[in-house]
Amino acid sequence: MLAGGCLAPTLPLPPPSRPDVEGPNAQGLVRLTGAELPNAWVFALNEGTQLSYGQVTGSDGRYDFSFPASVGESVLFWYRVGDQDSPSITLYIEPSP
After folding, report:
1. Strand (E) or helix (H) holding 89
2. What's the structural domain count of the chain?
3. Which of 31, 56, 77, 97 could form an S-S bond across to 66 if both were Cys, CB 3.0 to 4.6 Å?
4. Model confidence over 56-71: pLDDT tens digits?
């Protein structure tokens, strides 16, 4: 006789929280800071250059990374836990105040 395991589907991840965006600075770098789930990967895909950047969050879920981007470019932002990706949000790079 085989015992049936729990086959309930995994709930989808919610979209990421909007990060704090700084820059671009004098070197052309944009800095993203914020928090997601602990030990998750966070990603930023610069749609203008088609280059992606990311970082693993710590046990507190915090991240802080920079990547090249120009004013007017759009950046897709999302996170991954295990093999599951969250929906992405779009960030638009605006001039620094």
Report:
1. strand 89-92
2. 1
3. 31
4. 999 999 999 999 999 9
